[in-house]
Amino acid sequence: MNHRLRTFAPVLPVIAVIALLGLPLAPGAGGAGPADAVSGLVVLYCGIRLLRERRRPLTPTAVAVMGLPVLGLSIAAMGASSPGAGLSGLGRYLQIFVLVPAAVVLLVRDRRDFRVLAWSFVSLALWQGAIGVKQYVTATGASYQGEDIRAVGTFGPTDVMGMATVVSFGLICAVALALGLGRNDVRQRAVATACAFALLLPLALSFSRGAWIATAATCALQLALAGLRRALKVAAAVTAAGAVLVGGFGVGSAMLQERISSITQVTDAPDQSVTDRYTMWAAATAMWREHPLTGVGLKGFPEYRDGNASLALSSGSDTDGAGAGYLKQPLLSPHNMYLLVLSEQGLIGLLTLAGSWLALLVCALRGLFRTHRAGLPGLDCALVSSGLLIWQLIDFMYADIGGPSTVLTAVVFGVAAWWSLVGANTEQQLPVPTSVRVPKAEAAIQ
């Protein structure tokens, strides 16, 4: 056991961040949590390791890609309404999109470490999903249509997307491991497949339309990349499982059907949540038109919202249940990451931040295609990182950062960046010839 702990010592702090998201939060708690505090320690731990090992931490390409958002963030911080708002907003953005992802890239040494993190995502998803299913069965979840049945895990009603996000990440990792592991890993592939099917139920009971859309699109892409024949088999199995869960056992069938049908009714007969979202999107666009290059400044959306929103915007979102009392939650963001960045940071911020994400996606997919065509090891890592990044970029159309689960987004960008900037390199995937003896010191580093 001690030997195994020493083997995975560099990534244990990252695993601790993931594990802490499984702890229950105080009712009504929002913003940063214990996992955020540990993520700061992860960055510090990574810095200490770099100083002790005295090695060049990142390649120039990695520094350019991961450091690109700093430019737009710095300009937006200077344009904030107050120094305090600028500094706090800058710190949060740097944590999520620069510092923690860079630390993950530096602490993950090889595909073995990477797979440990992938299974950590799956484990957290199973834990949160089990709590969510219990909340639905026992009617102790967040309030939904007058009943306390919405599965939210330990995140509570103020972060209803938290459990849906965690379960989606775990499902994507499980699908990637099931599709990408080698033929010799039959047991792991079987476990990953079982985990993927098990996570479908809590994802459905989250009643999160954005998570459903992002997960369905991402898994479809993963299956397509794995081969058409396998994609058809898995699609048939998922359809059968859904029919059994919803039709056979009646798992929330009426509410699920209504929720699914509401996705196509956002323009015909939108509910108040959709109306609020469209109104805030329009307000964010109006802010950008007034300040096209630099935006209104970090954390400036709430201050400028009322002056740019129509009367259709409600006073807030009602939350209740899951151990917390009734609360009117203010609408402080447009629930669209791209529009939030555009309104607060302008075109400069959007181009630098989204440009970094796009560069990671291009590198990840290029490495995935190269690995698939050449039959090199690491297809599971490629599918995990590409899938997580694609899900996050799709979900950003319906959500933005905020809440205790946000720190997991930072880990996701770090995982994606490792594959894009390190793991996808052909030189690191080629097997070492048996005739070449690797010194022990070099083997330990690898």
Q: SSE layout and pairings?
A:
Blueprint: H1 2-7, H2 12-20, H3 34-53, H4 60-67, H5 69-78, H6 83-107, H7 111-138, E1 142-144, E2 147-150, H8 161-180, H9 186-198, H10 200-205, H11 209-226, H12 228-248, H13 253-263, H14 272-290, H15 301-308, E3 317-321, E4 324-329, H16 337-374, H17 379-395, H18 406-423, H19 426-429, H20 440-445
Antiparallel strand pairs: 1-2, 3-4
Helix pairs in contact: 2-3, 2-7, 3-6, 5-6, 5-16, 6-18, 7-8, 8-9, 8-11, 8-17, 11-12, 11-17, 14-15, 14-16, 16-17, 16-18, 17-18
Can you describe what's shown?
With 446 residues, the chain is mostly helical. The protein has helices at 2-7, 12-20, 34-53, 60-67, 69-78, 83-107, 111-138, 161-180, 186-198, 200-205, 209-226, 228-248, 253-263, 272-290, 301-308, 337-374, 379-395, 406-423, 426-429, 440-445, and strands spanning 142-144, 147-150, 317-321, 324-329. The strands form 2 sheets. It has a two-stranded antiparallel sheet. The longest helix has 38 residues, at 337-374. The chain starts with a helix and ends with a helix. Residues 427-446 have low confidence and may be disordered.
Written as H for each helix and E for each strand, in order along the chain, the element string is: HHHHHHHEEHHHHHHHHEEHHHHH
Oligomeric composition of the shown chains: single chain
* End-to-end distance: 21 Å
Strand order of the largest sheet: 1-2
* Overall strand count: 4
Helix content percent band? 55-70%
Strand content: under 5%
Globular, elongated, flat, extended or rod-shaped: what is the shape? Answer: globular
Number of helices: 20
Largest sheet: 2 strands, antiparallel
Extract low-pLDDT stretches: 427-446
Computed Rg: 22 Å
What structural class is derived from the secondary structure elements? mainly alpha
Return the average pLDDT rounded to an integer. 83
